[in-house]
């Protein structure tokens, strides 16, 4: 590893460690995430430190001592603790406190001078960052806020769901327990009664005989709160809109209409051999005429006319066919 | 083109007549019109800060560092921005001439090497000291996490940590920073009111720079409300950077070396180190293999009892 080889220029006593080490250790410490800053842990022996020269130059460039503080506007703040460079938060906090302290002192000074130093709210002038840039900044801040809020809401919803589930489970348990209890008590009562041979009815001291057990609740619609606006239908199991004509009683009627008595005419055949010879749907007279056909000419003609009147012209052919068939 | 008339070249220098009769115009200051009679403090011998900073950069500068330079320009109303200088000109003499040409009293020169490393030269011209810094940890004002904003050109409050008074080289640096970064009073482009503060502090032998906007609830311009000082908050405006002093020279951009940072390692050396650490990988592997082989040969294993168990 290369050593910094420079000429030894020591003009004054200074704090260089003369420890005769050949290879100063190089400690790779990251002071910022972007640039790796390598520091020699031991001072290189050959660095220049011209104390007098530095102080000379300082005297050269400084302003005269009696210059008003308003020209300098500089303040010195004591940094109490040693701040670790790599701890970002602590470091920034140290800078912040330094600035805060300094501003406070400065403002006290300004106030004593009684000159305006605070910007009035209506003072509009060019700022160091443009308005469009500040709009972007604002947008980003709002987006962050919204994200946080949404995360909060989601968490709350999850928790409340959990709690609701627990409560529900509790309720169900209780109900089941109650039901069991009631049944048990009825059984007990029966047994008791049996044992005592159905006598001494009046001496039974069972608590459920006060007549109130079998009383129906006066609530017309149990399980529905007074503020329910859904008509009591919100809690129905499997309620997902109409199911084949809204179940219940209507369902029976509906089914009957659809399937009863051989079902609907629907898609069935109409003009088959059977239906042609089917005379059940005609009236009595017509049937007799068609069946027996032993009508006189006049009667036949009358029948024909009646037929035509009732069923149209083509129906007259029926008689002729039947006649032929019979004859 | 008419002939040039030959007339006597006697210079007619009309002496400037000082009209004492006409009343002089009242002087225009930032706070309003002031009659000359009322001047008490500003005698001709009073101190006037006439600081002017020339801000330039070298060619082939990175975008991030260029933005940093632009931010610095916007922070200092008493600066003059100049064109990029050729890399040859970044040695001493030409820069000094440039500064004199522009009539500036100090210079901030951003030198970028290999498009990776930024060096900042801070020099007082014509014969003042100069410092070369290595700049790290650059965050510009355009970052959306730095949300503050302040008046452009308002005079900043400068704060230094007390570390600056411990050593002479820090003292010198403090004086230079104060003169360069502090806006002169009554500067032409400066704005009234103080609404931001610069923080320079020394941590781990580096100078850290922060710029905060001061926000304090107030109703009047010259008084803070009673509880106001406690409710003051600072919002960071940016930019941010960290300076690592390399050398301090007696002259401007050159001259006798007054101070050298003993802990400074140049970024080139850092990179070389890293490469060296990776370089020996293959050789090391080969060596390790050889070593293992020698070890195996020198310590033979006992013959295994069960070696022949599954042999057919």
Automatic annotation (TrEMBL), chain A:
Q: Which GO terms describe its cellular component?
A: nuclear periphery; nucleolus; preribosome, large subunit precursor
Q: Which organism is it from?
A: Actinidia rufa
Question: For the region Disordered, what residue ranges are annotated?
Answer: 14-43, 151-273
| GO terms classed as biological process | ribosomal large subunit biogenesis; rRNA processing
Q: Where is the composition biased (Basic and acidic residues)?
A: 151-165, 171-187, 196-217
Q: Any idea where this protein resides?
A: Nucleus, Nucleolus
Q: What is its main location?
A: nucleus
Q: What family is it from?
A: Belongs to the EBP2 family.
Question: Which domain of life does the protein's organism represent?
Answer: Eukaryota
Q: Which residues form a coiled coil?
A: none
- Point to the regions of Acidic residues compositional bias: 17-37
Q: What keywords would UniProt list here?
A: Coiled coil, Nucleus, Ribosome biogenesis
Task: Tell me what this protein is called.
Answer: rRNA processing protein-like protein
The UniProt entry, under Pfam families, shows:
Ebp2 (PF05890)
Q: Does this UniProt record's set of keywords contain Coiled coil?
A: yes
UniProtKB/TrEMBL annotation, chain B:
Q: What does the record give under GO molecular function?
A: rRNA binding
Q: Which GO terms describe its cellular component?
A: nucleolus
> A biological process (GO) annotation for this entry?
rRNA processing
Q: Where is the composition biased (Basic and acidic residues)?
A: 17-35
A Pfam family assignment: Brix
SUPFAM superfamilies in the cross-refs: Class II aaRS ABD-related (SSF52954)
Q: Where is the composition biased (Basic residues)?
A: 284-294
State where composition is biased (Acidic residues): 302-312
Write out the annotated subcellular location: Nucleus, Nucleolus
| All copies of domain Brix, residue ranges | 51-254
Where do the segments described as Disordered lie?
Answer: 1-35, 284-312
Q: Which keywords does UniProt give here?
A: Nucleus, Ribosome biogenesis
* This protein's record includes keyword Nucleus: yes
Q: Which family does it belong to?
A: Belongs to the BRX1 family.
Q: What is this protein called?
A: Ribosomal RNA processing Brix domain protein
